[in-house]
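Sample log: DNA primase.
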Amino acid sequence: MSSQLVSSAKNDIDSDAGNSSNSSRVSASDMAFYYERLLPFRYVFQWLNHSPKPQADFVMREFAYEFQSGAYQRYNSYNNLEEFKASVIKSNPTRFEVGAVYEINPSERKSVPKSKMKPVEKELVFDIDLTDYDDIRTCCSKTKICTKCWKFITVATKIIDQALRDDFGFEHMIWVFSGRRGAHCWVSDKRARVLDETRRRAIIEYLDVLKNKGSKRLNVRRPYHPHIQRSYDILKTEFIPIILEEQNPWQNDKAAIETLCKFSNEKLNEALKEFWGDHPDRSSFQKWKDIDEVAKRTLPKSTNFKLIVEAKQDLILETLYPRLDVEVSRQMIHLLKSPFCIHPGTGNVCVPFDSRQPFDPMSSPNLHQLQREIIEYQSNDEDEKISDIDKTSLSPYIEDFRKYVTRLLKSERNGKRERDDENDLEF
């Protein structure tokens, strides 16, 4: 079967090469190739099961399939790794999504009252999407991304990751490229998984400083909360290169007036409008400096200039602070596509990445690229004893994921041992 899949994959690649508009199209045979030869089912199973041997964390968990026809199938569940892998290969979905763990097996939902189907455990997840930055990014919009606007994601993941570690004490987090224009964070600590929706809501409200993704001015008290101050200290060093220089969103005078001329001092707002009217098309960097210079030149010495400084600080937060999809984090029943799925629109692999290390989504593995790598390897009569994964650029991502899962399982064993010891002390 493997040779047939290689042949089919080669035909699909050759066909796409002749039609650039289809270069990212993913066929059913492409997906069959990937599921049978590359997807690391064992590590995905262990990651969700928290043990090498099947337990409720996996067996009672919901999975969903999305198909090329547009059909969506929920409430799948599996008894073990082998059943999980066989089902995905047989069903051949465009992607599969991971849901919550239930008290009742999801596959038995029709035989029990709906009130019994309540989620009891699920990873704490976060979703950041670049389309939520379309009001400030100028290099791309909608589904398109580039290395410039990916910096919004880089900064966002750094801030959220640090807050989860330092403020909440979580240790087991993994960030995953969504395959097109965003990133997902999965927090797998035991105490994160058992959070109810009220506590999840409290965490997301703590982190969701913007509340409405920048649709109006920020309203935060001074002095800043320690989390906001720490975030600001990170963002202020990125503001000039990312916003003022690369994105340059306020060179357009109308955009500058709408965004920048909102100070509490109306005299300053009018002076800036007049100055930019007399000096049109100044860069965002120049306009940012203009605010201070025009304020010093036109406002009386009795003016509270501290308010102007604080307004500029708030604007830095408004433009660069993470813009979170809060419902993804709040709801335990929300499903999210698994790491190592293929994005059906791009063919990109949803690979994990370290938020503390550089990651370039433009050069991350793509399914057609992986197929070419295997075909090229085999055409050179290289050693066939090595696994297909090790013939591709996907290998280091899977190895990093394996190491992460190993650490998670070790922590789970230690935590279980501690809980057992505590129970032994009870009389």
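Observation: The beta strands are 61-66, 72-76, 95-102, 119-121, 124-129, 173-177, 182-187, 336-337, 352-353.
Observation: Confidence is low (pLDDT under 50) at residues 14-22.
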